[in-house]
Amino acid sequence: MAARPTWQGHLKLSLVTCPVALYTATTSAADVRFHLINPDTYNRIRMVPTDPDAGPVERSHLVRGYEVSKDEYVLFDDADFDKVRLDSTKTIAIDKFVDEADIDRLYWDDPFFVVPEKGAGVEAFAVIRDAMQKQGKVALGQLVLRGKERQLALEVRGKGLLAYTLRAHDEVRDADDYFDDIPKVKADADMVEIAARIIAQKEADFDPTAFKDRYDDALREMIKSKTKGGKGLVDVAEPDDTNVIDLMAALKNSLKGSAGGARKPTAKKPAAKSAPRKKTA
Hints:
23% helix, 6 helices
């Protein structure tokens, strides 16, 4: 496997344990990235750690510090962090199972592929995986990842497991703090009906391959244009806010426009008739 694991340790369910590795399930390799350039020299700017008194410092010489008061720090080196040992630093211990619907979407975070290490542990991994699939639940556990203990949700995905880090409760803001100030408006029933018909006409299957980052695409086109000496400028007009007086007219026009590009319903195949079961004596 070409990718390097993000984390290596053990997956544990009661007395069943197996070595596993976590691999990031997403990639940002296709993102358009830029560097800071000095326009006078065309040199790339390098970020050099600098001490206000001593000047540039080698990064390998630095340690981390926790500020206990203004300009006063408690210092920590690698040996200090090694002394803080938690079971979750090397083991994902599954301690409970929940329904997926019980986890608010706000808490779902980064996805990882959980892959068993080659060897005798593969059978133990299969036992845990198949038992989870049989129960149809999402497993919860903890692990230390990137210097922080995170809650983890695991579900079966093909021959492996898919793990999501879950945000802590204090990381999720209360929606009421933002939604309570939204004024109560009684929407017109006829307008809601027309909007619902527009939604029905735009019904489609979920196809992630159709997702395109148009901003990145525009940047690539501009890069291509600049390499050829062009300006590559793109003007985009801001959409106008809907006029409340013309809202019904806008909905009706939208309904007409949607009807022309509505997806044709696919014909359903008749269900195959199953052979009658033989009665056993």
